[in-house]
Structure formats: C-alpha cells, structure tokens
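hiii so um. not sure if this is the right channel but i have a protein structure encoded as tokens and i wanna go backwards to a sequence. like what aa goes where. can anyone help
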C-alpha cells in the first residue's frame, strides 16, 4: 500500500450512506439461504457475483431486492448488521448511520419488529464489542405510494426512540420527492430527522424538491446538483452534507470513469462532501475501498482526505460533544502522520 493509501485507511471516519441490505455478501446470502431452507437461483457465490453488472440503478435494485429474500429472522438481521460493523471497524469507521428498507421485508410478510429488533441488537453488540456507535435511518421505497410510506411510519412508532431519521430510496426517476411531502412533514412533527436520495439519476429539480418540500437535513448522493450553479451555491452556503458514493457511482454508471469522479470538484466548490459505500456487497467495496479508489486520479492529497473524514462527523447526527471528540482524534491522527 502507498503511504497515502495507508494514511487514508487509518483515518477515523463515519459512514453516513450505507444500506444494510446492500451489505449482504454473496457468502452470507448462501449461508442464510441454507439456514432458512430457501432456494436461490444461482449455483454458486461466483455465479451470483458474476450477475453484479449494472448499467443503471434499476438493474441493481432488481437483484438487490431479490437478494434480500434470504433475510427472514431476527437472528438474520442481527448477523447482517454485525457482519457490516466488523468490516466497518476494520476500515477505521467509528460511527455509522445505516439505512434499512422495512417495506422490502414487511411486503414479504416479515414483521417490522423482526427487522428492527434484529438490526438494533446487532448495533448494540457492535457498540459494546467493537466500539462503533451507530444510528438507524428508516427509508421509504419511493417506487411505492405515499399511503404505504404512512403505514410504515405507523408501524415504526414503538421504535421511534431508536430511529434517528427517515430517508427516501429506490428508483429515483419518475418518483420525485414531492410524492412524499406529507409523510416527511409527519416524520418531522414526530421528531425525526430527514434525509433523501436525490440527484443520483434524477435531475437537479429533485434536489430542489428534497430541500424545499422534504426539508432534508442531509442529501444522499446529490451528484446532479452540480449541473445547477445556483443550487450548488445554495448547498455550499447552507453547509448541507452530501453523502457521496464513488464506487456506487461507477458501478451504476453515474460516472463513466472513477478518475473522472466529481468529488474533488465538490470540495473545491465548498460542498460538504463525504465518502460512503452505499451497497458495498454489490459495488466492489467498503468505505476504505471508496476512499482509496479516489487516490489514483491524483487530485486529492492527504489534507483533502482528512477534510472528507472530518465532513463525515460534521454531517453526522451525533451531538456536538461527540463530533468535537471525533474531530480531535482526526487532528491527532493527522499530526502523528506528520503530513506536509
Ligand atoms: N437502495 C439501495 N441503494 C440505493 C441507491 N444507490 N439508490 C437508490 N436506492 C437504493
Ligand atoms: Zn443509497
């Protein structure tokens, strides 16, 4: 590993854009299929991995929802979460804010309770045994209707003290944020923070809607905001955090070439960009793979990578005391590395 790759790998960091269902590795998928006596339409781990070739978001979503079918019990969700946290801890992640898609499971007859309690048990164990703190973000599937989102929010009520925020994911184009304005209003009244995927494949207008109609506290992806100079300025001035996912962008053809990824431009424009893995089991890597993928282009130096890591805490839903503590550990790490 180069010195810069080594530096980046050891940087203390938070992960703010991670779909827990997207951390289901093929090996674990086969293991859960065996445990739950479910047939999966692939003969081997290699054959399954070979199917992970996508030319747009929907190609991925089709296989991702199919893969989630092996998740059936509280233990499955616990094991899924813990497997992610082990990998995250190995990547110097000390805090993670993870998405889950309850409708993917409740629509298959898996009770909300099974999903939430399993994930929360894994999160508690990760904090106790690995020292990784976490928050849970409930995502509504935007290809479904607003009534279904309201039903999901109602089902979540007993867990609201353990859910930090609501989010919006799945097929973006054709499902603008405006479709979910009322349910996001309700979530806000219930004291939940709000985030949304916008500007991944959808136009800058969807980012405007996420800001103006959903009142988001954080923007997931946001790449296409760069097409609108006034919007970019607004995001920069307001200190909005963007949870950017480089390897996801490459795999889903949001960017043509990783060396052409706009993250450096985002930083120079004053955007609070962060680096995240999105669906690491499907997109070729966890958070450090995403940070390291940005090195070969040669446009980011160690200070830029430290900024990206700082942004991950500044954009987190941690309280100010915890954020300051994490920023202090980054400062100490940078000082110890004696970077020029
Ligand atoms: N669900 C899981 N990953 C997603 C992504 N990158 N965009 C939209 N929905 C998703
Ligand atoms: Zn995502």
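sure thing!! here u go:
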């Amino acid at each position: 590993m180069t010195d810069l790759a080594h530096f980046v790998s050891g940087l203390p960091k938070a992960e703010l854009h991670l779909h827990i269902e997207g951390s289901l590795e093929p090996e674990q998928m086969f293991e859960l299929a065996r445990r739950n006596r479910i047939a999966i339409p692939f003969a081997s781990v290699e054959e399954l991995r070979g199917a992970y070739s996508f030319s747009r978001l929907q190609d991925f979503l089709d296989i991702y929802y199919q893969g989630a079918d092996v998740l059936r019990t509280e233990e499955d969700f616990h094991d899924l979460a813990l497997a992610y946290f082990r990998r995250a801890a190995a990547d110097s992640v000390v805090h993670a804010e993870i998405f889950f898609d309850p409708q993917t499971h409740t629509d298959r007859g898996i009770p909300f309770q099974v999903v939430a309690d399993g994930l929360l048990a894994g999160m508690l164990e990760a904090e106790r045994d690995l020292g990784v703190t976490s928050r849970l973000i409930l995502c509504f599937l935007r290809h479904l209707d607003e009534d279904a989102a309201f039903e999901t929010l109602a089902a979540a009520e007993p867990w609201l003290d353990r859910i930090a925020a609501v989010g919006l994911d799945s097929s973006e184009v054709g499902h603008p944020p405006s479709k979910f304005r009322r349910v996001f209003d309700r979530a806000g009244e219930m004291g939940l923070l709000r985030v949304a995927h916008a500007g991944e494949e959808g136009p800058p207008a969807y980012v405007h809607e996420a800001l103006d109609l959903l009142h988001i506290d954080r923007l997931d992806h946001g790449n296409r905001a760069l097409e609108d100079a006034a919007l970019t300025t607004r995001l920069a001035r307001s200190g909005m955090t963007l949870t950017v996912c480089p390897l996801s962008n490459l795999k889903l053809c949001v960017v043509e070439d990783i060396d052409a990824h706009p993250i450096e431009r985002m930083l120079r424009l004053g955007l609070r960009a962060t680096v995240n893995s999105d669906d690491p089991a499907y997109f070729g890597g966890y958070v450090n793979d995403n940070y390291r993928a940005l090195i070969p282009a040669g446009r980011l130096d160690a200070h830029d990578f430290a900024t990206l890591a700082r942004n991950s805490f500044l954009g987190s839903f941690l309280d100010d005391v915890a954020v300051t503590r994490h920023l202090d550990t980054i400062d100490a790490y940078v000082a110890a590395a004696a970077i020029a």
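oh and Residues 2-337 form a domain with the TIM Barrel fold (CATH 3.20.20.140).
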